[in-house]
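note to self: dont lose this again. the chain is below, predicted strucutre after it. 265 aa total, dont forget to put it in the shared folder this time
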Amino acid sequence: MRPTDTIDKLTDTWQSISALCADLTEDQWKTMTACPGWTVQDTLSHLIGVERMMIGLPVTKHRAIQGAHVKNPIGEFNEHDVDVRRSLSGAEVLAEWNDLIEDSRDFLEDAGEEYFNRETMTPTGPGTMADFLHIRVLDCWAHEQDIRRALGKPGNEGGPAAEHTIDRLLRTIPIVVGKRAQTPEGRGVVIEITGPVQRTVPVLVTNGRAAIVDQVADPISTLKMDSNTFCALAMGRIDPSSSKVDIAGDQELGKAITTNLNMMI
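---
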């Protein structure tokens, strides 16, 4: 089945990125983001590299000298596409991006079920191309927000792609609450995400495992934050000690959850 909803969220995010970057100066393109070692231009170069791979275009043969910010094989792979475009202007990278997303839209429009059902390795493990596209919404939206934060140009903080991203990030909340923060057996916590995307996430530890449940009657700790803060923490973009999280109840547990929210590799 063609994942129409996923594709719509992805293409909407692509268009938002293009509009955001349309009038950037060269100084803005060279502004550092919260992604270690990457400028605004580097961030878009990364998105180009992955998108080319997704639609079967040749990957670069350039090999970057790996900086200290590269921590794993995925990071090393990403750096090649970033580095090969560092000699270009931001406008040149944007032109490549705009041409590429047109090609990608056409490709996804014409692709049959065999493409979406094709088995592949995704950033979270084995899956299908449809699974990979589902992750791509998160990746593209997250990097759009990286660019916006770096430039002080907030926008696109709510809506389908933002909701999609937050719901994917919430999948690992039980690991954070149970394994990482060591919430006691039989107790639960509640994470309140206040907006622009709103979510209430009750998590209960039973038989040594944490799970999202319908409600927690007597939470040992309640954490309240806006969705921008949640995403920045869950993606490791901000220092937890400086984040705007209101904690009620057990303060130490709340701080442990906040500190361990980063879910990105």
